[in-house]
Amino acid sequence: MAYDYIIVGAGSAGCVLANRLSAHQGKRVLLLEAGPSDWHPLIHMPAGIARLANNRHFNWNYRTEPEPQLQNRRLWWPRGKTLGGSSAINAMIYIRGVAGDYDRWAQATGDARWSWKQVLPWFLRSEDNIRGAGTLHGAGGPLGVSDLRHHNELSDAFVDAGVSAGYPRNSDFNGPQQEGFGLYQVTQRGGRRCSTAVAYLQPARQRSNLEVRTKATVARVVIRNGRAVGVQLQGDATVLEADEIILCGGAINTPQLLMLSGIGPADHLREHGIQIQADRPDIGSHLQDHLDICTLDASTRKVSYDHLNELAAGWRFLRHRSGPGTSNVAEAGGFVRSRLAADERCDLQFHFVPAQLDDHGRHRLPGYGYTVHACYLHPRSRGRLRLRSADPAQPIAIHANYLGDAEGHDLQRMVEAARLSREILSQPAFAAYRGGPVFPERALHTDAEYIDFIRRKAETIYHPAGTCRMGSDASAPVDSELRVRGIDGLRVVDASVMPSLPSGNTNAPVIMMAERASALILNEAPDGITRP
């Protein structure tokens, strides 16, 4: 059976596309997902993320290669492997970024349709914000965007500390200005996680023209005479054919699949005996991510989530959709334009967790405490992905190259992020809770001390992007309509096509990109009306 569209990856973008494309009854759509369905109850209870971290059924559990600037540590990169993808296992923070991010995309692609003015309607189309519709918010869209139903008193202390440190209080990071400290809005509805599987895929599942297959790993895209005509699943020689193939595997899986299909750096593919379909040297290159440093203090009061009564929290969530079970854990945050900011945008972001978070929460610490995450938003370092072999079951080699820019630009900003974290935690708002330092273990004074701390403890904040960047230059793997250069009938819609990272979390931008992509494919306007 031939399809109009085969979508590879039922993650943040794939579920959006499955909904929007199958809304046209005459179009047959096949959605393929390597992981299982999102059946697990802890996916849908927001605070369940703490228990899902090491669950290999729903997480690709990638690791980088040894990172030269981080004491050769191999960093853990979780990525969603279920319906909803990473939107099913993330902290649900809804952040768009700022106008300057997308105006830079428009410049990189030579296409004004990626400017802030022209992407904003696609953000609004996706959104069902509990605060109602306005010039900067949408209502009635598929994606639930809510205020937290529950947050810890320590999160209030963090916001107050940011204000006393001299920054504005901000009740809406997606409002007129991003700068300041406040509570995050989250992708939830009624106290439950609202992944793209819940928001977009569930309402479309009953459509007769949409087929969804889980535990279906694609081994390669089949290309004939320069055109993508179908895909093959692992362990199955059958070719599933379609008029168009849309890859939504994310910044790691999409470039891997392209390379396995013969699209990528020709010399590298020849090393693994892969037949060349298109020599695209930049596929797998330009890898970007937000590196993050955590500062932890012990708490003298037992109010954090470190030793939460999980049974009581779960019962309250099931009965009333309230209490700490509805928390996204990273409840509060902030955006700062530091003294090192290179342009008009905020360059540092903070996430506050009212618990001690070490090694992504996988290392449980004794006692009670709280954590400030801090990341630099506009890194200059670029990494790359490379195949280990032609075996699709082998994970790709991730060379993130954190802090690898020649000028030390990123490292200077990370030092500033760590310094400001300690400054915020030293504010009077934490006086009633402040115990001793946990990480760093003692007061730091010099740049050298902060640099040592960063190299020893920094981790990802889960925003890889850029490995199939779109651009106007001939070397960019993808054009501004998300078509893979050199191969007809093949598009990429996920974070891999981002020319540069937005100023914040990446999930909302990916959803916007999928809304935008569906319209490019169907020739629609933001109101969903097909244009002649």
Average predicted confidence as pLDDT: 97
Number of DSSP E strands: 25
> What separation lies between the terminal Cα atoms?
29 Å
Q: Counting H and I runs of at least 4 residues, what is the number of helices? A: 13
CATH superfamily of the largest domain: FAD/NAD(P)-binding domain
The CATH topology of the largest domain: FAD/NAD(P)-binding domain
Helix/strand/pairing class, anyone? alpha/beta
Helix content: 10-25%
Architecture of the largest domain, CATH level 2? 3-Layer(bba) Sandwich
Largest sheet: 7 strands, mixed
> What is the CATH class of the largest domain?
Alpha Beta
| General form | globular
Whole-number tally of structural domains: 2
